[in-house]
């Protein structure tokens, strides 16, 4: 009844995550919400990597597994973790400086 | 639970969880609910990874983002729970701009995804080039192989004709080391940024008491 | 199994998915029944052990002399209680939280092998998967604490967040040792690597694994939010912590989550350190031959014996955790955190390093008698290299 | 060879133990200081371990090479073990390495050094116990009139002791002169640290500096000697050695031998080696390396230069001035320096490089030794500081050793080194015990301590008897009797063959009498008679066990060190005899001084020489003792009156022959004068030039300033104004709102995608579906 799952299916999930993450970036004022948007976008990229390196989605490929995709996802995760650590530290600093998490309040560097 | 149908069921289930979580993130005004949406979405992504045969990466996704989002949640709660709820909603113009931009972006991306032909073209090329027709078979993606790749033995980059692995494409040792150092530097930097300024005349131990 | 069901029902290929769904649900129900039984037994054991430690008898009325049916009575009482939602609460999250807390623990049992091959889904990264999924339990508790809209609950939830995120690090570190020794994250393979006499169990492999085992025990207790590390529900400070505002069925779901998590960490610990389904004496090998026999009945019997072994060890572990709760006082939150970061984590890291060196220096074990699987790490590297050599 | 092959390893461990102790205490000292005596225990355990390992190594060695009197004829000829542990660098045949050269002398030194060092470590527990707590140093007056209070430095003391032990053992085991030199300097720096242990006392620091600088003078000569040998022989190894490419090269001893017997140059392997090569056919032939520019004259010069270093280290005339000042260090350090480590190094080195020393050099050694021993003995007559007396006696005894070596008595000189180590350690530790009890070094403040400190007094008496060479002539005596008689016999033989140097023998005899006199003067002044200072006497007390036990042990050895083991002829001198080396041109005419002959040592063992010398020495000793009794024991004569009568001589001796003043005139003042002239030149010439150059540069700068302001600044300001205007225009894009930026990023992204899809079809085709 179901059509077999192809890489395109995964790409669609990635698209949804990417677009929602982008909208999240564009519409939220809360600094943590913006961080959440970034995480969504990173995950959208990860899904694509996994899809293209999957031995399940490319059963006839020789060699069956391309490790590059999974390694890249691991690196992206590590970078995301690092980014989250720094971003949260910045958020904390932001909060203690401005007393709010609204990024629009932090426009002291405007021209 | 194997087979194409089983996979399809599970795929759709987790795709819905993923996309639904993402929508919750966008549509909820409350930061904690957005974080819950993010958790759902990331959980779905992890399950999609498992389905795609990337078990280690899937487990890694769960593990890392559990820690990451727990802290995110904690921060969300800490920074917003003190005062009455501030929705921090944006203007209608902002939403309009976002949607206006998102529409063409979606169209282009969908077009690209649809135009992608899921052939095994890459492998076919390699196959034809080397003339080796012995398939290795469905080797499981054990973490050992990922680990070996990170330590410099990447099976992918091995020449099918049995030649020597040439320098420079034999694995991911250098990126692995780089990212380790990067992570360390970032964590130290974050710890430095987030440290609490201790007012003079107050020992750090006094300060610790406030956290509890 | 699904294929068999489909054939039996003579379903047309386009309806095969119904068979899949049915089988999946069936397996889930079996697992759920198992988990619920475990939880019921654990609550009974908790009451009995508490009673014995406090010089009482514990439950004696319901279900004969030993109060066997006490869990059932408790459940009935809880289900008939009124479920309250405070006015100040975030209703959606308040309802969601208990299930978020219970579901991951249930998910753990999907990957936990009860015997050689008796596992719902054979992951080859099972150990890691279980550690990851166990960590998800904390979400429910934090959300419950936050959504209740009470300061006690909030404090409990935040404590839980800090505690669980911290203790995951040494927990994973100590769990890494058996993985390192067996050379795989596959729990079935890890269990198999400890076949034979009890000195083949990884806990007795070398001094470092012995240390790591006790770190695992400490971190598992802390990670499942059990006394003496139950800071999230410290009744002397926070009324009842994160579940102050919960009652009735939702509260019992939290409760079940906690006991199921106990069983889960015990199961993982048993597989990782205590030989899994291998008894202290290789009775199964004497009875049923060295390897899994071709005869399905013999095979089944041997696996059943393994599962009994496994369950007995789990029960011992759970009872140990329960008796910990009733004997040890509760430390302060800063003591809990410093215990994690200043003692458990460095010790676990040292043990990891030590075990690595041990395997490198003494691949045949201390006495040279050789551990049957001691050099699997090296072997796996060799196998991988071989695969690279001969594509 | 299996039992012998263990010996280098054992000695390596024995050598490394004190280093390990040093490193450990160095790293954890501040922590250990708070925990009491842990550092002391560590250091003591390390050096005691060295001692045990050395004894085991010695046992292995002598089990293989028994101490037969006719060892030359025994089945296996004695062959020193030599090899390299660690190669620092190789330049062709030149090899810089850390290695071992082991013969009976090395082993005996190892056992002796580690044994005495162990006893001194134990003794230091008692002596240095004050350093465990905060110390109040009464000798350091601060600006506000109070005395200095400082934290105790117990750990630091033991740390330096460990380093000292390590350095000395390294010096002893070295198989090449470079390694010797390195550890030579390490010994020097250790003594510097320990002499200046009380760094707050200016006297201590200047004493440390003095020791260090005087040693530099000697070491300068030594470096010259090393350079001469390295350039002429191309190696600094004593014995044959092997480079990493497998070639065997000859060592210094072989070159020296080749000079003696020029014919043997054609046949590289030396005698014993060629015999050995028959029994051990695998021994490869040795090749000569280097430019082979070694001539006899160069060897003389190199020997003299190396001797300079030995003179400095062993405090021989004229470089002896540092040793009395070195008494500023704690007494255990003095004992260590005098008995086992520092000053012994010089004598040991002369003994080690003996095959390289030509008769000319040996004569210089003998003359300097004689001058030193007489001079130091006379100075010791008048000194009142108990440690100074002992210091001069050390110089004097070292003179004896040098004299013995210089007159051809290799065994005699080194034998005295060993016996002297025992009784001088005993005397110093005893004096330390006295100082510990009295709180002063001045003998006139003491007296009558025999009653208060019986153990110290008796052991000190044994030490005095030993150093004076007491014994029953022709039969047996204290250890000093045997060794000193051996030296005197050799000197007597020397004076019979070389009449024009006969005064050496008589001076040595007179000094023997002086030795007896000043030692018993010390003992009588300290322990006998009425207490001269009731306050000090009242507070005096016997020292703790940790101090008296080493005294008793050392006293035992001071008595028996000269004896042979009953029933055998195993004795210290027989042991040294096994390692004996012969000097160049023994028993033949010396090329440069045609009529000098270095006699063979065996000849001095003749019974008639021995009897004669023994009786003469005994008479001299009795004479010295009698005078001491007359002046200080029975007090029949008042020493003060004698001093007044011979006031000029007394003042001359009291001022130590005016050596310090002489050096001050000769070296210090000229240097100060040159420095003041240089300072004047600096001020008047160089500063003037610099000042005026500065003025010139300043006026140039004014001109430059003007140019800068008008031309350069004008251009820059205009440019800046233009850029500022542009910035004003750009700043309106800088809203500071992050969402605006993201918006523009996304706009750019979407535009890029659209452009890409227009111009390149669909971008994804390009990336993925290129095939």
Structure report:
The complex is a heterotetramer of chains A (111), B (212), C (391) and D (771). By secondary structure, chain A is mostly helical. Chain A has a single domain, classed as Helix Hairpins (Orthogonal Bundle). Helices cover 68% and strands 0% of the residues of chain A. Chain A contains 3 helices and no strands. Chain B is mostly helical and 212 residues long. In chain B, α2 runs antiparallel to α3. Chain C is mostly helical. Chain C has one domain. In chain C, α3 crosses α10, α5 packs antiparallel against α10 and α10 packs across α12. The radius of gyration of chain C is 23 Å and the shape is globular. In chain D, the strands form 4 sheets. Chain D has a two-stranded antiparallel sheet.
Shape of chain B: globular
> Separation of termini of chain B?
47 Å
Total strands of chain B: the figure is 0
Low-confidence stretches of chain C: 369-378, 387-391
Please give the CATH architecture of the largest domain in chain B: Up-down Bundle
- Helix/sheet category of chain B: mainly alpha
Find the CATH superfamily of the largest domain in chain B: NADH-ubiquinone/plastoquinone oxidoreductase chain 6, subunit NuoJ
Query: Biggest sheet of chain C, in brief?
Result: none
What is the mean predicted local confidence, pLDDT of chain C? 78
Q: What is the count of distinct domains of chain C? A: 1
Main sheet characteristics of chain B = none
Largest interface: A-B, 81 and 92 residues
Q: What characteristics describe this protein?
A:
heterotetramer, A: 111 residues, mainly alpha, Helix Hairpins, 68% helix, elongated, B: 212 residues, Four Helix Bundle (Hemerythrin (Met), subunit A), 8 helices, globular
Brief summary:
The complex is a heterotetramer of chains A (111), B (212), C (391) and D (771). Chain A is mainly α and 111 residues long.
Write the layout of secondary structure elements.
The complex is a heterotetramer of chains A (111), B (212), C (391) and D (771).
Chain B: H1 3-27, H2 31-51, H3 55-80, H4 92-115, H5 121-130, H6 143-150, H7 173-194, H8 204-211
Helix pairs in contact in B: 1-2, 2-3
Chain C: H1 2-9, H2 16-53, H3 70-79, H4 91-111, H5 126-147, H6 151-182, H7 187-193, H8 207-223, H9 235-238, H10 248-272, H11 283-288, H12 296-327, H13 333-361, H14 376-389
Helix pairs in contact in C: 1-2, 2-10, 2-12, 3-10, 4-5, 4-10, 5-6, 5-10, 6-8, 6-13, 8-10, 8-13, 10-12
Chain D: H1 2-34, H2 38-64, E1 81-91, E2 94-102, H3 104-127, E3 135-141, E4 147-150, H4 154-173, H5 177-195, H6 202-233, E5 241-242, E6 248-249, H7 252-260, H8 271-279, H9 296-313, H10 322-325, H11 331-339, H12 342-352, H13 359-382, H14 386-406, H15 410-438, H16 449-452, H17 454-468, E7 471-472, E8 476-477, H18 479-497, H19 503-527, H20 534-539, H21 545-560, H22 572-578, H23 607-633, H24 639-645, H25 647-654, H26 659-730, H27 738-759, H28 763-767
Antiparallel strand pairs in D: 1-2, 3-4, 5-6, 7-8
Helix pairs in contact in D: 1-2, 1-4, 2-3, 2-4, 3-4, 3-11, 3-15, 3-21, 4-5, 5-6, 6-9, 9-12, 9-13, 11-15, 12-14, 12-15, 13-14, 13-19, 14-15, 14-18, 14-19, 15-17, 15-18, 15-21, 15-22, 17-19, 17-21, 18-19, 18-23, 19-23, 24-25
């Amino acid at each position: 009844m179901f059509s077999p799952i192809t890489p395109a299916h995964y790409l669609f999930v990635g698209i949804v995550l990417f677009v929602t993450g982008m909208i999240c970036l564009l519409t939220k004022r809360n600094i943590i919400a913006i961080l959440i948007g970034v995480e969504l976008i990173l995950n959208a990229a990860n899904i694509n990597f996994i899809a293209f390196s999957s031995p399940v989605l490319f059963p006839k490929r020789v060699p069956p597994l391309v490790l590059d995709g999974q390694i890249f996802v691991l690196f992206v995760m590590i970078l995301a973790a690092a980014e989250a650590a720094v971003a949260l530290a910045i958020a904390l600093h932001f909060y203690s400086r401005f007393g709010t998490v609204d990024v629009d309040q932090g426009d002291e560097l405007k021209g | 639970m194997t087979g194409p149908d089983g996979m399809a069921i599970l795929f759709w289930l987790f795709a819905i969880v993923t996309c639904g979580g993402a929508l919750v993130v966008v549509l909820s005004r409350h930061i904690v609910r957005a974080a819950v949406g993010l958790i759902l979405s990331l959980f779905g992504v992890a399950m999609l990874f498992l389905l795609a045969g990337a078990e280690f990466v899937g487990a890694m996704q769960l593990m890392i983002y559990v820690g990451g989002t727990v802290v995110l949640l904690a921060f969300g709660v800490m920074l917003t729970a003190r005062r009455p709820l501030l929705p921090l909603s944006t203007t209608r113009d902002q939403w309009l701009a976002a949607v206006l931009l998102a529409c063409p972006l979606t169209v282009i991306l969908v077009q690209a995804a649809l135009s992608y032909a899921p052939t095994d073209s890459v492998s076919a090329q390699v196959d034809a080039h080397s003339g080796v027709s012995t398939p290795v078979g469905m080797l499981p993606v054990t973490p050992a192989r990922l680990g070996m790749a990170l330590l410099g033995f990447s099976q992918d980059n091995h020449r099918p004709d049995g030649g020597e692995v040439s320098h420079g494409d034999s694995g991911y040792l250098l990126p692995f080391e780089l990212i380790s150092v990067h992570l360390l530097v970032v964590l130290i930097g974050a710890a430095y940024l987030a440290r609490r300024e201790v007012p003079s005349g107050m020992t750090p131990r006094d300060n610790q008491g406030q956290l509890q | 199994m699904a294929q068999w069901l489909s054939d039996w029902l003579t379903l047309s290929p386009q309806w095969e998915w119904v068979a899949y769904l049915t089988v999946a649900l069936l397996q889930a129900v079996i697992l759920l029944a198992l988990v619920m039984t475990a939880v019921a037994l654990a609550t009974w054991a908790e009451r009995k052990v508490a009673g014995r430690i406090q010089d009482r008898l514990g439950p004696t009325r319901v279900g004969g002399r030993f109060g066997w049916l006490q869990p059932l009575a408790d459940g009935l009482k809880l289900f008939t209680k009124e479920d309250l939602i405070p006015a100040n609460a975030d209703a959606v999250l308040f309802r969601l939280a208990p299930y978020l807390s219970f579901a991951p623990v249930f998910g753990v049992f999907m990957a936990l092998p009860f015997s050689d091959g008796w596992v719902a889904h054979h992951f080859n990264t099972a150990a890691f998967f279980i550690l990851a999924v166990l960590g998800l339990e904390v979400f429910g508790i934090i959300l419950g604490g936050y959504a209740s809209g009470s300061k006690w609950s909030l404090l409990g939830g935040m404590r839980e967040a800090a505690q669980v995120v911290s203790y995951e690090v040494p927990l994973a570190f100590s769990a890494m040792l058996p993985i390192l020794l067996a050379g795989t994250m596959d729990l079935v393979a890890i269990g198999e690597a400890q076949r034979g006499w009890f000195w083949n169990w990884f806990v007795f492999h070398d001094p470092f694994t012995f240390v790591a085992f006790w770190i695992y025990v400490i971190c598992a207790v802390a990670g499942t939010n059990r006394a003496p590390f139950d800071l999230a529900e410290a009744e002397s400070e926070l009324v009842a912590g994160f579940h102050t505002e919960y009652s009735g069925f939702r509260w019992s779901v939290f409760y079940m989550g906690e006991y199921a998590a106990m069983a889960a960490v015990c199961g993982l610990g048993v597989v990782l350190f205590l030989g899994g389904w291998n008894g202290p004496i290789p009775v199964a090998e004497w009875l049923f031959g060295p390897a899994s026999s071709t005869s399905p009945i013999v095979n089944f019997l041997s696996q059943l014996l393994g599962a009994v072994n496994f369950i007995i060890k789990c029960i011992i572990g759970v009872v140990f955790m329960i008796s910990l709760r009733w004997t040890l006082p509760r430390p302060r939150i800063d003591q809990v955190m410093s215990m994690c970061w200043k003692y458990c984590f460095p010790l676990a890291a040292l043990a990891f390093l030590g075990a690595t060196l041990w395997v490198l220096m003494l691949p045949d074990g201390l006495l040279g008698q050789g551990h049957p699987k001691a050099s699997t790490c090296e072997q796996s590297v060799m196998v991988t290299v071989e695969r690279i050599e001969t594509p | 060879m299996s039992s012998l092959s263990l010996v280098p390893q054992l000695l390596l461990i024995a050598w490394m133990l004190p280093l390990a102790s040093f490193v450990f205490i160095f790293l954890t000292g501040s922590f250990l200081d708070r925990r009491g005596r842990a550092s002391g225990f560590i250091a003591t355990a390390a050096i005691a371990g060295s001692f045990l390992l050395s004894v085991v190594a010695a046992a292995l060695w002598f089990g293989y090479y028994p101490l037969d009197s006719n060892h030359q004829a025994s089945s296996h000829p004695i062959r020193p073990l030599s090899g390299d542990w660690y190669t620092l660098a190789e330049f062709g045949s030149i090899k810089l390495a850390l290695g071992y050269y082991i013969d009976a002398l090395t082993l005996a030194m190892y056992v002796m050094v580690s044994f005495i060092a162990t006893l001194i470590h134990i003794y230091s527990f008692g002596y240095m116990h004050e350093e465990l707590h905060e110390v109040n140093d009464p000798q350091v007056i601060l600006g506000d009139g109070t005395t200095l209070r400082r934290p105790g430095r117990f750990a630091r003391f033991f740390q330096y002791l460990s380093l000292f032990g390590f350095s000395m053992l390294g010096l002893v085991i070295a198989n090449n002169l470079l390694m010797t030199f390195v550890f030579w300097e390490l010994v020097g720096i250790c003594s510097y640290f320990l002499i200046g242990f009380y760094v707050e006392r200016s006297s201590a620091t200047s004493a440390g500096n003095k020791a260090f600088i005087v040693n530099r003078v000697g070491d300068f000569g030594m470096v010259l000697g090393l350079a001469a040998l390295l350039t002429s022989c191309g190696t600094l190894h004593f014995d044959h050695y092997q480079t990493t490419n497998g070639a065997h090269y000859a060592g210094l001893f072989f070159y020296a031998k080749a000079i003696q017997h020029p014919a043997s140059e054609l046949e590289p392997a030396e005698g014993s080696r060629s015999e050995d090569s028959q029994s051990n056919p695998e021994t490869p032939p040795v090749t000569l390396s280097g430019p082979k520019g070694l001539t006899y004259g160069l060897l003389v010069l190199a020997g003299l230069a190396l001797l300079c270093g030995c003179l400095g280290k062993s405090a021989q005339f004229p470089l002896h001035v540092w040793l009395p000042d070195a008494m500023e260090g704690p007494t255990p350090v003095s004992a260590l320096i005098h008995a086992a480590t520092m000053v012994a190094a010089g004598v040991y080195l002369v003994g080690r490089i003996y095959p390289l020393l030509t008769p000319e050099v040996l004569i210089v050694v003998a003359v300097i030794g004689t001058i030193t021993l007489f001079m130091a003995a006379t100075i010791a007559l008048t000194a009142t500081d108990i440690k100074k007396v002992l210091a001069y006696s050390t110089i004097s005894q070292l003179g004896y050793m040098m004299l013995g070596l210089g007159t051809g008595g290799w065994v005699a000189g080194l034998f005295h080194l060993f016996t002297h180590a025992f009784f001088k350690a005993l005397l110093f530790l005893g004096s330390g015990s006295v100082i510990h009890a009295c709180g002063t070094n001045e003998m006139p403040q003491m007296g009558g301590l025999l009653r208060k400190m019986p153990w110290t007094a008796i052991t000190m008496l044994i030490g005095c008897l030993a150093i004076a060479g007491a014994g029953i002539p022709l039969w047996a005596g204290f250890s000093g009797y045997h060794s000193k008689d051996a030296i005197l016999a050799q000197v007597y033989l020397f004076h019979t063959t070389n009449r024009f140097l006969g005064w050496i023998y008589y001076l040595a005899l007179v000094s023997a009498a002086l030795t007896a006199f000043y030692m018993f003067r010390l003992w009588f002044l300290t322990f006998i008679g009425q207490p001269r200072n009731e306050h000090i006497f009242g507070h005096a007390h016997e020292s703790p066990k940790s101090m008296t036990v080493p005294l008793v042990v050392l006293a035992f050895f001071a008595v028996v060190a000269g004896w042979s083991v009953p029933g055998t002829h195993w004795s210290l001198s027989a042991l040294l005899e096994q390692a004996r080396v012969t000097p160049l041109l023994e028993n033949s005419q010396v090329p440069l001084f045609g009529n000098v002959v270095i006699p063979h040592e065996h000849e001095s063992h003749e019974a008639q020489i021995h009897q004669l010398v023994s009786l003469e020495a005994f008479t001299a000793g009795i004479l010295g003792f009698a005078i001491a009794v007359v002046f200080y024991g029975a007090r029949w004569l008042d020493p003060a009156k004698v001093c007044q009568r011979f006031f000029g001589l007394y003042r001359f001796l009291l001022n130590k022959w005016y050596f310090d003043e002489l050096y001050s005139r000769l070296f210090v003042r000229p240097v100060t004068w040159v420095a003041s002239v240089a300072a004047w030149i600096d001020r008047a010439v160089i500063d003037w030039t610099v000042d005026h150059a500065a003025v010139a540069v300043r006026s140039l700068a004014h001109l430059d300033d003007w140019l800068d302001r008008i031309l350069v600044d004008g251009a820059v300001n205009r440019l800046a104004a233009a850029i500022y205007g542009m910035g004003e225009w750009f700043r309106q894009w800088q809203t500071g709102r992050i969402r605006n930026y993201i918006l523009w990023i996304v706009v750019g992204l979407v535009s890029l995608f659209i452009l890409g899809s227009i111009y390149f079809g669909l971008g994804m085709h390009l990336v993925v579906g290129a095939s």
